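ARCHIVE CARD
Drawer: 12
Card no.: 0347
Subject: one protein chain, sequence and derived structure
Cross-reference: see card 0346
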Amino acid sequence: MTFFNTIGENQDELSKSIAQAKSQEAKIMRCFKYYEGKYPRLRFSPSMVLKMSGLKCPITSIRRAMTNLSNEGKLVKTDEKIKGLYGKLEHLWSLPEEPETFKQNTLPF
């Protein structure tokens, strides 16, 4: 689920909130993929993503989006932590490792 309607929004408001949450997730994925292309295996905290992505939203929205993306297998939450914007430790996240693939003509036999 992209947006959790814990405040009982009506259908019109809920549709807008879902669209906004999906847009946030898409921007976060673009941010990870952009920097992954430049610096493979780089990891980011929610605070880092908030600054790098240019999103104008609460840090809790970034955390929600990164958790959702992790649940979908699009991001991986690591055990590594660093200090975030508010001086508290935050986990680092990364793109999942791509499985190694082989083609018939690349096999060693």
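Annotation on reverse: Residues 11-96 form a domain with the Arc Repressor Mutant, subunit A fold (CATH 1.10.10.10). The mean pLDDT is 85.
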